[in-house]
Amino acid sequence: MSLKSIALSTLALTLIIAVRYVLIAWMTHALIWRRKSQTTAGTRLNRDWPKAATIRHELKLSLLSSWIYALPAAVGLEAWKHGATQVYLDVDRYGVWWLVASGLIYLVVQDAYYYWLHRVMHHPALFRWTHSGHHRSRQPTAFASFSFDWTEAALNAWLLPAMAFVIPIHPAVILTLLTLATVAAVLNHSGAEVLPPWMVKGRVGDWLITASHHSIHHIHYRKNFGLYFRFWDRLMGTDTMAR
Q1: From CA 60, how far away is CA 73, in angstroms rounded?
Q2: What pLDDT is attached to residue 236?
Q3: Can you list the positions of beta strands (E) in 141-210?
Q4: Residue of 12, 38, 40, 180 with fewest CB within 10 Å of its CB?
Q5: Cα 133 to Cα 207: distance, rounded to the nearest angstrom
Q6: In this predicted model, what pLDDT tens digit does every residue of 103-145 receive, in sequence order?
């Protein structure tokens, strides 16, 4: 594993991450905010129509975050090529059941890590340096899903690649997790709730974080810190659905 190979992998992954982000965010934004009819798909959460200045800010930070996320992923990729990670290709090695179990373990660990990191970043002494860029979007758009200060991106980017050195995982599970993370982040920052009210107010919304839940965080900074699940918010008394 050489610095040159890591640099090349970082460049390739940066392009992949950036293009994926722009395409998914743009398509989601275009589908939800219907400019010609001035309506939104689903329940509108943002008070105002998305501003071009807000989207430009979100794009700038998101494209910066792309290479920061790409670097530890590139290290993990190159390490895998040399057999230094727990990423495996043969499904029979651990069985089909482990595909599901490993995916759930990664989700639960990531969710717990982000909840506590998120709360720490909101500490007055750290907020300006770690999380203020994201919160410039008081009424976020789908483009805010990846809009992080470089410090926040760095604190987040290492977790999943590091876990791959310890907990066996199949590439198909990695791709599934990355897809779920992207879709959840884009939808939860879209400024509209695309899920029907019966889901948001029912069992799904009781346990999973949706746009209705996360949009409150951009208004009330001390509430709703979770990533995927409402478990930690409920346990620590930081959960609310009141706007």
Answers
A1: 21
A2: 96
A3: 192-193
A4: 38
A5: 28
A6: 999 999 999 999 999 999 999 999 999 999 999 998 999 999 9
Distances (CA, A) of 175 to 94, 110, 129, 234: 18, 15, 31, 29
- H/E segment holding residue 26: helix 3-32
Residue 145 CB partners (closer than 8 Å, separation 6+): 21, 25, 62, 182, 185, 186, 188, 189
- Alpha carbon distance 105, 110 (integer Å): 8
Q: Assign residue 93 a region: left if phi > 0, alpha if psi is -120 to 50, beta otherwise?
A: alpha
CA atoms in the 13 A half-sphere facing the CB of 12 = 11
pLDDT digits (tens, 9 = 90+) for 47-96: 899 999 999 999 999 999 999 999 999 999 999 999 999 999 999 999 99
10 Å CB burial of residue 209 (0-12, 13-18, 19+) is: buried
CA distance 204 to 93: 34
Q: Is the pLDDT of residue 208 over 90?
A: yes
- How high is the pLDDT of residue 240? 94
